[in-house]
Amino acid sequence: MKHLLRGSLLVLIFWLALCVQAQIPQRPVPPRLVNDFAGLLNPAESQYLERDLVAFDDSTSNQICLVIVDDLQGMDVLDLAFKIGEQWQVGQKGFDNGLVLLIKTKTDTRGEVAIATGYGLEAVLTDAVSKRIIEEEILPQFRQDRYFEGIQAGLDRIKLIASGEYSYSSEEGDGAAVFVFFVVLIVFMIVFLALVSKKYKDKNGGSSGNKGGLSDLSKAILLSGMLGGHNKGSSRGGSSSSGGFGGFGGSSSGGFGGFGGGRFGGGGAKGGW
Predict the structure, then answer these.
(1) Which of 33, 108, 125, 128 gives a 20 to 30 Å CA spacing to 100?
(2) Residue 171: what pLDDT?
(3) pLDDT number for residue 246
């Protein structure tokens, strides 16, 4: 009786495992980084993104896999993204530097987006950073039915952060540092000019017509410095975006060589529209 129960339990576990396996899209053969199972992108857009991600993989070894589906099979979007990353083994073995950008298209239910990161990318692409990418780069475009533009904006931001070329914290820190610098500079100029003006008045017996204040020359210098500082601060251009769809020239990289055995942890974020 015990053997029968044990056998039945094993069969049940095996059957449940098959059911879960069936919910996850099959690993593509031949391997691809752009996998549109919902037909959201046209062929030219898919080819462009594939070449872009292959080139990024070749230059950094970080693997970003885009997966688009029209049904989550009852699963949570982030859970499915993690399962895809684990089953497909996105990223390099030993580095675990893979990322899955999963998009569930808007059908009878709302559209959803998830970013799932491998262990090796969790330090730079934190949950908070992934959430900002979804909310600030991807979803604003998706809400206007600009799906390719939203995907491209999100991938561009992910690539910059994953390669260490950009961080939200450094952007905020730079702005604060510039503001503090110019405040200190203005205060220093005010104190310096006040001392110079006082020394000048003392030397001339305090007979200046500009009582208790700065001279016209000092005021002009101070105003010029303040305006100059403002212009320098405001001349910082925003980060350049890739713009729209830029055509499909010849690719300098070869085809995608395949996933490398990466592992996934619990880092990531999700959102919807």
Answers:
(1) 108
(2) 47
(3) 35
pLDDT of the residue at 5: 53
Where the chain has pLDDT below 50, the residues are: 11, 14-15, 18-20, 22, 170-177, 207-210, 212-214, 227-253
| Domain map (residue ranges) of the chain | 27-167+265-272, 168-234
C-beta neighbour count of 184 within 10 angstroms: 10
Q: How far is CA 264 from the centre of its chain?
A: 18
Name the pTM for this structure. 0.65
In sign, the C-alpha dihedral spanning 85, 89, 95, 98 is: negative
Residue 232, both tokens: 């320098």
